[in-house]
Amino acid sequence: MPDALFCHCRAGFEPELAAELAERAAALGHAGFPRTVRGSGFVEFIGEDAAQLARRLPFASLIFARQKLLRLAELRGVDSRDRIGPIHAALDAGIVRDRDGAPFGELWVEHPDSDAARPLSGLARSFGNALRPALRKAGWLSAREQPRLPRLHVVLLAGDHLVLGRSHPGDSAPWPQGIPRLRMHPQAPSRSALKLEEALLTLLDDDQRGELLRDGLTGADLGAAPGGWTWVMLRHGVRMTAIDNGPLRAASFEDGLFESGRLEHLRADGFRWQPAQPLDWMVCDMVEQPRRVAERMATWLREGWCRQTIFNLKLPMKKRWDETRLCLELFESQVGKPVQIRARQLYHDREEITVFARPR
Question: Where does the chain bind S-adenosyl-L-methionine (predicted)?
C-alpha cells in the first residue's frame, strides 16, 4: 500500500524540501513527518493516507522537489542475484490490478542525483533492461509505452536497497529524476542560458509556450550581460531590449541581430530602468538580495510594465525555505492584484529558485 511521498531534489537542499513538505502537509491537515539525510538527493514524507496527500499536493506547487512519487514499497537487503522477484512480490502485495490492462505505461529505473548514488547509473540502465520485459510478461507493464498511464519508478538507493514508486504524467516531471537533458548551444553567451531554457520547459505548459513565445512579442532582460537570457528569448522570436551597463558577448549575437531591430542594448541600471510602453516579457537573473529583487519584480507587474516575467531569487546559505516563502509572499502582496506564480529550484539553478509570474 502507498505509505509515503518520495521526492527527488538537489543534493544539499533536503532540509528545504523537508520543511516545505512538512509545512504544506500541515496546512492541508495531513499529519506526518519528513525523513531524509543531507546530501542524499531525496526526501520522504511519511504519514497517513499518502495517496490522498499526493492528490492534494500537486507537483506544480512544489518548489524544491524535482520529482514527486507515491512510494509503493521499500525493499531492503535485496539479493543481487534476484532483484526482480522481490519487486514482483511487492507489486502483488500492494497493487490492485485493473482488468482492462496493465496498470503501468512506463518503467523508469533511476537513482538520486547525489555523489553517493551516481555510481548506480550503470546498474540502473542494465537492471531496467532486464526488468522491463519481466514486468511486461507478468502483466504489470503495457507491451508498448503508454505515456498517459501511471509510471512505475524503481529508485536505486544502493545495490540492495530499492524504492518502488508511482507517478502520474499530469502530476510529475516528464523526465527521469526530474532532470531535463539540455545541451549547451555552442553560440550561447553563457551557461545561464540553460537556466532560462529549463524554466521555459518547466514553468510553462505546452499551451503557454505556444502563446507566449512567438514572433512579434517584446521583452526586456534586466542585468542582461553577457546576454544568456536575452539570447534565449531572441531564439524564441521575442524582440528584446537588453539592460546592463556591461557589454554583451558580441560573438553570440551575430547574423545581424543588432542590425535587424530585434535586439537593442541599453547601458542602464536594471533596477532603475522602465520601458516607455508595456512589454510582453521581462526576464531577470541579477545577483542581488532576493527581497530587493522580489520588490522590483512586483513593481513591474503592478505598474503594468510587462505582462509576464521570469526571474531568479538568489537564496542565502541558511533558512532558505523561510527566505523563499517570505520573498514570494512579499512579491505577491506588492503586486497588489491576483497573480499566477510558479516557482521551482531548477536542475541548472544553484543557490537560487526561478519564478514565473503573471496577473491572473
Answer: 192, 225-228, 244, 269, 285
